[in-house]
Amino acid sequence: MIKLALYGKGGIGKSTCTANLAAAFASLGKRVIQIGCDPKADSTMNLLGGTPVMPVMDYMREHDDEPTSVDEISKTGFGGVLCIETGGPTPGLGCAGRGIITTFSLLEELELFERFKPDVVLYDVLGDVVCGGFAAPIREGYASQVLIVTSGEKMALYAANNINSAVKNFEDRSYAKVRGIIMNRRSVENEEEKVRAFAEKAGLEIAADIPRSDDIIRCEDMGKTVIEGDPRCEAAQRFLALAKKLIEEDNDNE
Q1: Does residue 9 carry a catalytic annotation?
Q2: Which of 12, 67, 90, 116 has the fewest CB neighbours in a 10 Å radius?
Q3: For this structure, is 40 an active site residue?
Q4: What's the pLDDT tens digit per position in 157-210?
Q5: Distance (Å, whole) CA 58 – CA 86
Q6: C-alpha torsion angle, residues 169, 183, 246, 2 (rounded to 10)
Q7: For the whole model, what pTM was predicted?
Q8: Nearest residue to 22 (alpha-carbon basis) of 75, 70, 78, 100
Q9: Active-site annotation holds for 124
Q10: 120-138, pLDDT tens digit by residue?
Q11: How many helices (H) and strands (E) does the chain have?
Q12: Do 107 and 99 meet the contact criterion of CB atoms below 8 Å apart?
């Protein structure tokens, strides 16, 4: 099973990359689960035609009992992707990381993975904080690999370095390892040179190079990924290439 967590600076395009990668895997015939680990709960919207799924934490606040079925806290999106959002606490109250831990515990109780039997699980994780609840996706066997999303912007690269360092610090605990970088371009001057220099220094592969694309924006306005909305465009082809590469690696490791 491919188990990936995507981290990166807030606003760098993690949700866009995660949803498009989920759609790419699905279009290649894989059973996919995407779990959004952000209080905004917008990770899976472009797999669902722009309509959000009720976050787990919202469900638990609105009902007296915990859900008894995954169906109560999920929706099926493009290509059969099972979409789940952790959500978070009431604004100003509680810890968002705690919401992730609570959700993961619930999903274990509901035997999500045993029942759905996914080929791929993707976690879209809030910001660049790899501690507490935000580290949950990369520990205890949830995700085995991390993809760091970055552009050539200074603060994005700063966050990428922090994430890489944090994950490496966890290596002796059998946490996930960094698989590589997704360069999500922002038309920064000398962007490729900056990202490649960082990757080389960190000893990381640039696993995918996603162009800054009006196609992505246009499809998101329709509540779609480019895999669904315009599968022949360059951005869609880059996501498909990454999905194929990860599938081949997983097959080689079996």
Answers
A1: yes
A2: 90
A3: yes
A4: 999 999 999 888 877 677 899 999 999 999 999 999 999 999 999 999 999 999
A5: 9
A6: 50
A7: 0.95
A8: 78
A9: no
A10: 999 999 876 666 677 888 8
A11: 9, 8
A12: no
